[in-house]
Amino acid sequence: MRATSEEALRALLEGLPDAIVGADRDGIVVFANALAEDLFGYGRGELLGLPISMLWPERVRARYERNMRLYFELEHPLRFTERAYGLRRDGSQFVGEMSWGIVETAEGPLLLAVGRDITRRLEAERRLRRQTDEQAVVAALGEQALRGVAPRELAAEAAERVGMAMSAEHVRIVEP
Q1: What pTM was computed for the model?
Q2: Which of these ranges, 57-71, 101-115, 143-157, has the smallest mean pLDDT?
Q3: Confidence at residue 8, expressed as pLDDT on a 0 to 100 scale
Q4: 19 in the Ramachandran plot: left (φ > 0), alpha (ψ -120 to 50) or beta?
Q5: Taking phi first (over 0 means left), then psi (-120 to 50 degrees means alpha), and beta for anything else, what does residue 108 get?
Q6: Contact 47, 37 (CB under 8 A)
Q7: Residues 6+ apart with CB under 8 A from 155
Q8: DSSP secondary-structure letter at 2?
Q9: Whole-number Å distance between alpha carbons of 30 and 85
Q10: For the chain, how big is the Rg over CA atoms in Å?
Q11: What is the DSSP annotation of 132-146?
């Protein structure tokens, strides 16, 4: 027996490696796959009927709601990918890589959000940058030591470079 097109579509959306949430024109969640449940910490029964804005941190909620209204108003809906911020049921936040757009359905247009949590990847990239910066400091100090720079001067420069690297790291991780 062949699956109906709706069953086939649901199976496809469940099988994708990303969380998928669909919301109607009023911003109410009408579709969520299993990965969306896991990502946001809600059961499917809890997600369906929830305002999608409940999945967004307060600091970005107004902008995301404005964008959502704009998507529904455009004659040719936008589709794009960007960094986005999500809010889990437990109140924790995450950074996501999300694609957003409008899809037409028999019941009307839906905002479709497809994405994944990239928080761990960003943390790993930040650690790698820090390690690279530290290695560059060690290499530069080693070169100076080989040229005969006095140990006291090397220590002072090392302290200065470590302070600068820490300040630069702080600036990098501040989110908008």
Answers
A1: 0.66
A2: 143-157
A3: 75
A4: beta
A5: left
A6: yes
A7: none
A8: P
A9: 20
A10: 23
A11: HHHHHHHHHHHHHHH
